[in-house]
Amino acid sequence: MSELAVYAARDATSRGRRYTEPGPNYRSQYQRDRDRIVHSSAFRRLEYKTQVFVNHEGDMFRTRLTHSIEVAQIARSIARILHLNEDLAETVALAHDLGHTPFGHAGQDALNHCMSDYGGFEHNLQSLRVVDELEERYAEFPGLNLTFESREGILKHCSLQNAKALGDVGERFIHKQQPGLEAQVVNLADEIAYNNHDVDDGLRAKLISIEQLCEVALFNDQFQVVKAQYPKLTGRRLVHETIRRMINLLVVDLIENSQGMLTAAAPESIDAVRGYHRELIGFSEHMRQQSLELKRFLRNNLYRHYRVHRMTVKADKILRDLFNGFMHNIYLLPPEHQHTAQRYAEATGEAGKARAVADYIAGMTDRFAIMEHRRIFDPSELT
Ligand code: MG
Description:
- The protein is an all-alpha fold.
- 63% of the residues lie in helices and 0% in strands.
- It has 2 domains: 11-306, Hypothetical protein af1432 (Orthogonal Bundle), CATH 1.10.3210.10; 307-377, no CATH class.
- It starts with 28 loop residues before the first helix and ends in a 6-residue tail after the last helix.
- Residues 67, 71, 96-97, 190, 194 line the site of magnesium ion.
């Protein structure tokens, strides 16, 4: 790792773990965090969870696992150049989607709706819940007992009400402070990754076309450059050559603009970064506008495409049926989850029961949710 800047996260200034444990021998604290995430069961399940496309639709599309790896790659490159803590950036990137429900955004909205009387459901907060509470791997503590910095990075946003209940990691939402720079990098690396791979997957699925995409400056500029340089290039290579240039353009802009902001603000420590009145990692205004235009395009043409909408409606139905079914009759839950639901219900009543049901559903992969729905509600599946 290149030499760390004064404002990077480092072991020596870490705010530590919730449960004290001896330090790692041959790894940094953040490497240990990363390794714990890679070995977690929530991480493995990302392989069968999707963002836009349902998993069984085809093996060519991104899953949350490959998405998280792409985010980690982009975040590490940026962190290294900016002399930030690459291990922490990688950790946050690999963990950032751990709390996602099956069926991407549709699943999150459905579960949030189901939980509206019981404190709601936020996927980002759920990612923190996975690493703090739900993973069962260690004798000494629940969850993965990650460092404060990793947890701070995972919790990108949360409501004020939830922030108040969270203790240390919730405080910055109350005091309107920033997270460390590594978390800020991952946030934008996430945006770069999903915008670009949704273009790629959308084209592959034929939900959007190159002609349509040429309305978007960010795509069109690079597309024209590639066309001029390689007039005979067609098909996948033309698409990928364009996308890789878009990613590069965004990453270079982010690095150079952030470098400028960091030089101007000159924070002297990670705490100075946290206390600064705005984020110090960001695109130039021009690139921010271009990225927004691409986002808008994807929202209108891909995420609201009628074929995506059909999947959304089905996903919504599956999750609502499951939630209502389990709430109505907790004996439909596998024994382990039944016991958790009973335990939570004893502590906090219906809200507790609902939280246990939401945890169970959020942990499902797309295909597991489809199977579970069939097993419970399809009378021809009497097994
Ligand atoms: Mg993401």
